Recover the amino acids of this structure.
């Protein structure tokens, strides 16, 4: 069992295993620590933090869809100051790797957040969210504009030596073009994918079920799309990919690694099974044993087309 | 908070469309308090995707009960469970009622299935008088399962007082003049809103159990905000509630 | 019951009701006529026809996904000549409205097909498929290129007076831009959406389950995305929209009309319930009665945001 | 072809992982022929999305039976059906075996669950001798449910001939020297491929029942192509098959 090397490398970042908890789906780690042993998790990506606190969108923020869910949380978060003061100390205690996800409405804000957090030893890497579909400014406007994504990568890169991961929007025709720009501007990795834009209406009131009108679609429904995006990047751009989208169990995780992911994140499944991370890691180990794989990193992009 | 695989003891239909699901769980039974809730995985597959939140309706020894209406996919599946089926339950969630403080009479007010948390509260209340007011559209909407000293109101007058349950409360208000009361309430938002106004205006202790769409049920998704009385701040129904002081929230 | 006016108008085309059978999901109508009364259906959109017959992609062409399916049929079809000779005669007998869907690998081919079919009286409108994700040429390359879509619309428009409907790809950042071009170039309507690109891998063989590597995702999983695309077009462009994507029942159909669809198509559901069309029409009638709607066209874009 | 809601009579486990689901359907029973199949909606919800194709395994009076392994979501759900549950079935689909033509001995060859269509064929065959060869990995893989004159082969030799079922056929070939035989076969592709080569080389009548992923099962999705012996042409397994002459297809 213990012979299998589960560690993976993303730029200069080494993770004990490829499983990360996705941004926005585990808050700042404290609640979920009631259910799961965070010290066994490869990395925790914190809820997107912005310079100032954000109240987030009014309710209703969530609706279930077939094999998926829509959310429009609107980047509700405590803001950078509070994050540093109260959230980092808890996360420091947990023997996991902390990746800080940053959201912003301007390039300057991304840079300022990164700069401020760069000094925090507990933060081991940055995931830059250029793809939140649920806020008016920033978010998608950046995420779907290749020039902005390039600029954000370049400017953030300039203020930190820690690994910079750019979280890409799937709501574009050619996601690999965006991955290429990230690579060219010095980004260390890309995360793919954030949620797809979707909506759902009440047919009696004729109003959107989600107050924000549209929300981001996550969960098993989007897995085939996410896999295709990861594969597209993998075939076209030489950059580490963190696969995300609809992973419910270890089989899904293996599928993401095969199509090109170096590591992967689980999101929605945490809401349903808050111990899913540990179960997936165990499943990966058994799979590697069964398949005679001694280093899990061999799986990455091992597709036979 | 923990997840637990719980065997179903029975599902009973106690009304046209009201079901009681009883399950065996010493662990939940000993941990949960009136007004708290559980988040149920209704199937063993990934469909439906999300858990379904339900108040704990009663705890009897090692058995826990849920009361629900069948209206969507999840409640349909629950209504078809049989003895021995296993349900994955996340519990205990949220903050329950504060029922041990200083007052004489507990007035429980439920709109329709808003009655769900009260059998358990009734069971746990010691040394308080209890009055229970249950409102519904008609006779088939209401139940006195596990309740004490029940008065009904129905929109069509098919049983009890004709009108809504807040009107019923007001009509009975004289009865409570001499004792200090505390109201525990649960039901549809319009009812809670009317009740909130009445209790705040009249300076009556009142706790409201709220509902909203949820994904996780324990504070990690931020999916369940409710406006707080404080400016520019949401509470989370699952973590800060579902029971709130009437004065603390904006409905 | 019979008091409700279910008819809808798309350009000069009047349909007895808004329900159409989607291209590629009912062949040329004959097999499904064993299960359903085609004369009650608003319109039948035929499998994409191309100038020459196409053998289609090798197996495996289909795989199930959570609440969805991937297909890579590869536009297998009998070709224009055979279509006219053997398929149209059957469809003529059926008292439904026939819309002919055309796929091509060049603008000239679109034009030639349209010209040839323009003479067929049975064909009441054209749906131009610029968005098939499963063929090497044409398809997506056109569908994701706004200039091509504009040109195809213009050229096809020039050779027929029958209504021209352009079937749009969802695999773009701003589908409304494409709808706008269609309108500007004289198209009568847009169909939205075709399938999303997705994939699925066998984790033991590490091969794609679908021989074509990627396929098109359809079914309930994509409904939230399709609804958001229809809503986006509806809010930005004044053109009739035919809503498609994951409709399983009358409630889904109503939802599409509320967010902006004048008519809608059902695809995947035909494979599961080949009488779904009739059941949906009945459901629409009951809904209209219950809601006191006398003309179903009032539903279109009746959203309250 | 029609869809029909059919009540389940029973689900029986006849082997470690082999189930027989019996259902009551005079309509399907009277319409279907050996080798044809049905497309089953295993749940009443939209999940799993697609129907599941199954050969008709037997018809006894008004009852129809399916034989299946539990391996995925759909077969798991089927294995848990109980008396009175209703399944929506699309039938009869495809072309069955041609078994009334001129020959003396019907040799049925099944690899694992490839045995599924043969009980029904066995029942319907009149005035033919029957030999049945069933192959599997081990003892637990094979069954003689509803079959006649059965010989087994297993990879591990735990029952019958040690080797695969085509080797078993070859080993028994002398027995058939004096009669004209027709082979009916069903099973995994490698087995069918070996069999196809053997029968074509030796000019033996052989029909092969094939399987592949399907969406509709009746010809509208084009999802089920199989290479035909003709150049540049696919057959559809659901409409042109699932039973083909060994010479007609490329496996
Ligand atoms: C704290 C809390 C306690 C509750 N206690 C009870 C109870 O004791 N008895 C009872 O009958 N119901 C209770 N509810 C409501 C119950 O959660 C819903 O009735 C149930 O989720 C419906 O599921 P469904 O699949 O049958 O309906 P569907 O309409 O198919 O569900 C679709 C989605 O909407 C959500 N949803 C639907 N209705 C509601 C609702 N009223 N509130 C929140 N989410 C909803 C579902 O969770 C699901 O995600 C409670 C809700 C909350 C938040
Ligand atoms: C004409 C025909 C006749 C068949 N007869 C029988 C029979 O009599 N007994 C029996 O046990 N099986 C039979 N099969 C195979 C049977 O359809 C699959 O075992 C079944 O669909 C598996 O469903 P699942 O949900 O349990 O598996 P999953 O693996 O969860 O299914 C996922 C998807 O893959 C498809 N799939 C999985 N396995 C197969 C397969 N072997 N062939 C085709 N599609 C598959 C499913 O239909 C579904 O769409 C037949 C298949 C065909 C095409
Ligand atoms: C409720 C919710 C909140 C989310 N919040 C964020 C966020 O703040 N920042 C971010 O980058 N992604 C956020 N995401 C996106 C997830 O990190 C992930 O990319 C997406 O959910 C797809 O993965 P999944 O299908 O495993 O959930 C959120 C997703 C959900 C469901
Ligand atoms: C098996 C299959 C074949 C299809 N073939 C075509 C096609 O030939 N031309 C076309 O325009 N769309 C084709 N489509 C797309 C459908 O018309 C429709 O846009 C899509 O399936 C989404 O709708 P649905 O979710 O209701 O299936 C096909 C879809 C499926 C599932
Ligand atoms: S339901 Fe997830 S935070 Fe409340
Ligand atoms: S399964 Fe649809 S055509 Fe054969």
């Amino acid at each position: 069992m213990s012979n299998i090397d589960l560690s993976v490398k993303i730029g200069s970042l080494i993770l004990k295993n490829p499983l990360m908890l996705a941004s926005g789906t585990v808050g700042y780690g404290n609640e979920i620590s009631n259910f799961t042993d965070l010290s066994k998790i490869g990395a925790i990506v914190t809820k997107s933090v912005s310079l100032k606190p954000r109240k987030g969108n009014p309710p209703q923020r969530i609706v279930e869809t077939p094999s998926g869910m829509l959310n429009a949380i609107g980047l509700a978060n405590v803001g950078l100051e509070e994050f540093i003061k109260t959230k980092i100390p808890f996360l420091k205690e947990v023997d996991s790797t902390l990746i800080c996800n940053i959201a912003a409405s301007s390039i300057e804000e991304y840079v300022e957040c990164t700069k401020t957090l760069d000094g925090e030893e507990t933060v081991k890497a940055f995931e830059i969210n250029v793809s939140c579909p649920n806020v008016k400014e920033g978010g998608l406007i950046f995420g779907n504009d290749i020039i902005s994504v390039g600029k954000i990568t370049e400017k953030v890169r300039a203020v930190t030596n820690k690994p910079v991961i750019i979280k890409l929007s799937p709501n574009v025709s050619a996601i690999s073009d965006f991955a290429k720009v990230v690579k060219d501007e010095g980004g260390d990795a890309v995360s793919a994918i954030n949620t797809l834009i979707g909506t759902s209406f009440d047919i009696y009131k004729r109003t959107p079920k989600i107050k924000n009108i549209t929300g981001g679609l996550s969960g098993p429904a989007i897995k085939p799309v996410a896999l295709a995006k990861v594969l597209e990047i993998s075939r076209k751009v030489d950059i580490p990919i963190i696969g995300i989208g609809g992973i419910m169990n270890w089989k899904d995780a293996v599928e993401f690694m095969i199509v090109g992911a170096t590591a992967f994140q689980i999101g929605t499944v945490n809401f349903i099974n808050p111990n899913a991370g540990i179960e997936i890691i165990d499943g990966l180990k058994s799979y590697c044993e069964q398949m005679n794989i001694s280093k899990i990193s061999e799986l990455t992009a091992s597709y036979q087309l | 908070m923990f997840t637990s695989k719980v065997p179903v003891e029975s599902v009973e239909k106690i009304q046209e469309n009201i079901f009681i699901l009883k399950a065996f769980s010493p662990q939940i039974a000993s941990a949960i308090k009136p007004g708290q809730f559980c988040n149920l995985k209704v199937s063993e597959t990934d469909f439906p995707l999300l858990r379904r939140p339900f108040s704990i309706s009663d705890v009897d020894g090692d058995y826990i009960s849920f009361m629900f209406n069948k209206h969507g996919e999840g409640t349909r599946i629950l209504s078809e469970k049989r003895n021995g089926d296993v349900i994955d339950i996340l519990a205990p969630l949220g903050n329950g009622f504060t029922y041990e403080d200083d007052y004489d009479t507990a007035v429980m007010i439920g709109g329709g299935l808003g009655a769900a948390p009260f059998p358990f509260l009734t069971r746990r209340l010691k040394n308080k008088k209890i009055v229970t007011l249950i409102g519904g559209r008609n006779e088939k909407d209401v139940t006195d399962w596990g309740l004490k000293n029940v008065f009904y109101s129905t929109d069509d007058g098919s049983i009890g007082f004709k009108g809504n349950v807040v009107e019923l409360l007001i009509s009975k208000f004289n009865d409570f003049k001499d004792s200090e009361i505390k109201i525990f309430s649960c039901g549809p938002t319009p009812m809670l809103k009317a009740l909130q106004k009445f209790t705040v205006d009249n300076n009556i202790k009142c706790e409201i159990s709220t509902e909203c769409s949820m994904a996780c049920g324990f504070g990690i998704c931020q999916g369940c905000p409710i406006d707080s009385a404080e400016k520019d701040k949401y509470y989370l129904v699952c973590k800060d509630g579902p029971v709130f002081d009437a004065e603390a929230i904006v409905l």
